[in-house]
Amino acid sequence: MGTEEGVVELHDDKGKIDQKLTISVHTFSDLTYTSPVVFLYLLKECYAHGTCKATNKFRILQQKVYHALENSPQPGPATFVVWCLYVLPIFGLHCEGFSHLIISALRRFLNLAPTLEDTSKAKVIAARLFLDIVGGLVDHDERIVVKILEVFDVKLADVNKALCQLNVQDDYKPNTAKTLVEDYIFKLIDSQSYMTAASLLEHFSIRQSGKSFLVKMMQNKQSRAAEKWATFMGKSMLCALVQEYVDQNMLKQAYETIKKNNLKQEFPDVYHKCKESSLKKLAEKALWDLAEAKTHGDKQLLEYLVYLAMEAGYSEKVDELCERYSLEGFLNVKESEGSVLQSKYLHLDELAVENIIWVDEVDGLCAATSHIEGCKVVGLDCEWKPNYVKGSKPNKVSIMQIASDKTVFIFDLIKLFEDIPDILDNCLSRILQSPRILKLGYNFQCDIKQLAHSYGELRCFNNYEKLLDMQNVFKETRGGLSGLAEKILGTGLNKTRRNSNWELRPLSHNQLEYAALDAAVLVHIFHHFHNHSQSAGFPDGHDKIEWKSHIVSRMDKPKKAKKESKNKRELEDDINKHGQSN
């Protein structure tokens, strides 16, 4: 009996073999005559050899120990493991890790094949082990202590029996198990081991600690331990915990506790306040559909969501919610806030945009391409329907906006790709890969990846010539494109519709304006800056920005250095011409 070298195969997500690693594994085909010390020594040797990482070793050895417990360890699997736990401290640094390993293996074994005689004997020894740990005779981590008590189901009565045996054998002073356990728990509390203390109070069903213990845990930012203990103590302590959460402005935790423990009637105001806070965060991210779903039809929350939509200037969402849920009394408020909202955000008419043209068929596509090819500067943007299902694939890009000075074309990519993919590919290649047209984007790397992912069959989204990402030019600006517009033009953009349903056909008037504005404002910001650079200088903080240094090309194959240098000189020569009207 000893160790042997084994090969472990690690697989990737598709089930294919990713790599083969080696680890020493035991030949524990028969543990009848193997002592706990020998077993642990061989386990240590096994762990020390092989090429697996620590996490993989733990998983593999756990499986080996589980199977070893089936091979007649004496006097029984559970008893054998508890004796292993008795001697493990002599293995030093390996003690805690091996304790977790063999306890988890035993727990799995007992779930499938427990034997009453073996587990009864093991419980007696485990109770004695607990006393020796408390008395300082055996050194185990406090988390291991909790696991020992749990896996061997050691209760106060078992500790009391073991304590009585000690009193008789060693002439100790009589002491009750409860007093001994409480003293041990108080020491844990003094050392701020609150989670272990709470676990032991729950395990031994000790309910003497009061609200002061809860407050102490919260003051030391041990909310998980406080929740565990409050759950064990019952409704009154859970209510005290919710109040602590509220007092510390931990509304999310308060809401989760109220929801989990059915305390809505006890804290109706807090519950709605937490829900409203959650809705406000979703609204700030423009996740209106998700926010609506989170209301679960609650009228009070729906009315709050309507106010948020009004505050954001999302008039069609206000109408939609009022109509769907028969909410009344918002019309006058909506009209009174309209003028304020009109001046709060930038509008298309302020950018002198004359036309928004929807492109979803071949003639319109060809006409739009011809117009754009005659431009020197255009703004680009894309929109797609958000996907709120965690782990699922994002939806296809629905529309692409390309803006010149006075016209914005909105391409229905989904329909064009279905109807005329080859013509679409050719037209967009002529635009996106043209070295004569400067393309402006904002954080356009995200759009590039999404376009390639959505329409991998099209060549037009593989190459981009003369692309300028405005986010790279104004790196210090906060608030995204809206923040940049506010900084440069004095007014920000209304972004409440960015996560709306962009696969809806036809798009609403407000959706079309939103989409057009995002592309058009890029052109306007560029011209605004270019004009300043040739007259009174750049606005404060941007006088040293050079546009040409941020223009990049994205190509399948790198061009030769000489050609690249020539292209760069051409870009530098052309840049001064781009401030003129298209």
Automatic annotation (TrEMBL):
Annotated coiled-coil segments of the chain: none
Basic and acidic residues bias locations: 567-582
SMART domains, per the entry: 35EXOc (SM00474)
A Pfam family per the record: DNA_pol_A_exo1
GO terms of molecular function: 3'-5' exonuclease activity; nucleic acid binding
Residues annotated as domain 3'-5' exonuclease: 356-534
Segments of this protein annotated with the region Disordered: 550-582
Record's signal peptide: none
GO terms (BP aspect): nucleobase-containing compound metabolic process
InterPro entries in the record: 3'-5'_exonuclease_dom, Exonuclease_MUT-7-like
PANTHER family listed in its UniProt record: 3'-5' EXONUCLEASE DOMAIN-CONTAINING PROTEIN, EXONUCLEASE MUT-7 HOMOLOG
Name of the molecule in the record: 3'-5' exonuclease domain-containing protein
